Amino acid sequence: MKIVIFKSNFNPITKYHIKIAKEVLKKKNADLVCFYIDSSLNDDIYHREKMVKMAIQPYRKFVYINNYQKLMKRNKENQYLIFEDIESEKQSDLFKTGRLSTVDKKVCSYVFNNGIYAKEIINSYVSSKRFKHCLSVADLCLKIARGNNLDEYKAYLIGLYHDIAKDLSKEELLIYMNIYKPYEIEYDYHVWHQYVGYYYLKHNCRLKDKRMLKAIRHHCLGDDNDVYSKLIFIADKLDPLRDYDSSKLIEIACKNLNKAFDLVKKQNEEYLESREVV
Ligand SMILES: [Fe+2]
Ligand SMILES: [Fe+2]
Questions:
Q1: CATH number of 3-108
Q2: How far is the CA of 164 from the centre of ligand 1 (A)?
Q3: CATH 1.10.3210.10 fits 118-275, yes or no
Q4: What is the pLDDT of residues 24-67, one digit of tens each?
Q5: How far apart are the CA of 11 and the centre of ligand 1, in A?
Q6: Of 55, 60, 132, 272, which cross-links 277 as Cys (Cβ 3.0–4.6 Å)?
């Protein structure tokens, strides 16, 4: 039996890994390709392992292994062929810069739902100034969530993802608005990014969490009553990086989210009226 051991970081596994595994299977006339995560860096492979299993699941000649060292001890007759490929690392890096089509849909969904590479991915979508805002809002979301006994990680990810579409140009936003939901075009284009962000995360990134999606969809206008929608609305407006002192309202938000929401909403409506944004 000819066995190929495909050793790579699989960080994450991409369609390219699958393609070259198919090629090597054919070329070497092998019976099996064993996917082995090279964990020499001693990092946590929990998510990578799950993604590899997910991606190879449709292929009966592909298996996942974690007993590489044991196999190598028994490899006296060189029955196992080790296969490594440098190019595949570049494909994994491309995914982390927003090239979502480089990975299987299930893997993409897993990444976004679990917040894997979340910072790297968001960093590639927005400007450095916006990225700092996203990090700051995510931290504030976590803080407010903790004070109100909410899911801290869910809150953190909402904060990180909420402005994913914010740095698109008006023309680019318009393209997405036309694809997804033309009737919302009636709103000022400054709020379009909440709809585009929602649809992009739902359809392209395959984020499944309905409350997270809803919160992002309403984060500019604060026109939804779900607690996570209120949370991101507050955190976005009270971001400590903005040029006004929001510390008192943050303090209130950490104790009583609903009270802070009412105060921030009122303050925001007055601001929008003065600018005639809505
Ligand atoms: Fe926003
Ligand atoms: Fe924002």
A1: 3.40.50.620
A2: 8
A3: yes
A4: 999 999 999 999 998 766 578 999 999 999 999 999 999 999 87
A5: 30
A6: 272
